[in-house]
Design brief:
Response regulator transcription factor, OB fold (Dihydrolipoamide Acetyltransferase, E2P), globular
């Protein structure tokens, strides 16, 4: 199982060290390196990320402020040269806290903790075969097998079923975290698909119900691995 990781640090040298650690760790995929918290926030609106490695001491917006602005869908590992932030980090639900210079063994320990949290959350979702969503001021129960694909619409998402479409106020990240990973996969910043509804794949376009859904470049590798599982 792959875990998508983002690095947020204003120091190029620190980003380089973190990048090296991520790239040599099996199961981690580096999505982006960000030099500021503001850049990270903008990217998180479009990209699916599981784990964030965030430096605390950054100008404009600190890593602590970034973590507080995020919802619970992310595993945040804080990184700093100052040990005095440890208590505040854990009080604000940081997954772990790393002090520079980071040793690879300590990095792995933090990553494994983040993975365990993600896996536990995903396993809970695997037990469900239905989901409740609020659409048109009504609470609607949907059988997961009825969902064909989900499309992003600014601050909303559109859930496409066999016979109807539901507009729901949610983010793609928030929704994918409520769905079983064995059935649903994000293939583009704007699309989540039900793997059981895939009819064919044509030039990296998924065909579902006569709809051609593109596979985004940053999602291609993980999606192709999923196809191998489906064969």
């Amino acid at each position: 199982m792959d875990y998508r990781c983002m690095i947020v640090d204003d120091e190029a040298l620190s980003r380089g060290i973190a990048k090296n650690f991520v790239e040599k760790t099996k199961g981690l995929t580096l999505t982006h390196e960000c030099s500021s918290a503001i850049e990270a926030i903008n990217l998180l609106q479009e990209e699916d990320v599981d784990i964030l490695l965030v430096d605390i001491n950054m100008p404009e917006m600190t890593g602590m402020e970034l973590m507080k602005s995020l919802d619970e869908n992310y595993q945040v590992i804080l990184v700093t040269g100052d040990e005095n932030y440890a208590i505040e980090a854990f009080e604000n639900s940081a997954t772990d806290y790393l002090v520079k210079p980071i040793e690879y063994s300590r990095f792995i320990k933090a990553i494994n903790k983040a993975k365990a949290n993600i896996d536990a959350f995903r396993q809970r979702n695997e037990r469900f075969d239905e989901i409740y969503v609020k659409s048109d001021s009504r609470l609607v129960r949907l059988q997961l097998e009825e969902i064909y694909f989900i499309e992003a619409l600014a601050d909303y998402v559109m859930i496409n079923t066999a016979n109807k479409k539901y507009i729901v106020h949610s983010t793609m990240k928030g929704l994918i975290n409520r769905l079983p990973q064995s059935m649903f996969v994000r293939v583009h910043r704007s699309y989540i698909v039900n793997t059981k509804r895939i009819e064919s794949l044509e030039d990296l376009n998924i065909v579902i119900k006569d709809k051609y859904i593109p596979v985004g470049a940053s999602y291609k590798e993980s999606f192709m691995k999923r196809l191998n599982i489906l064969k």
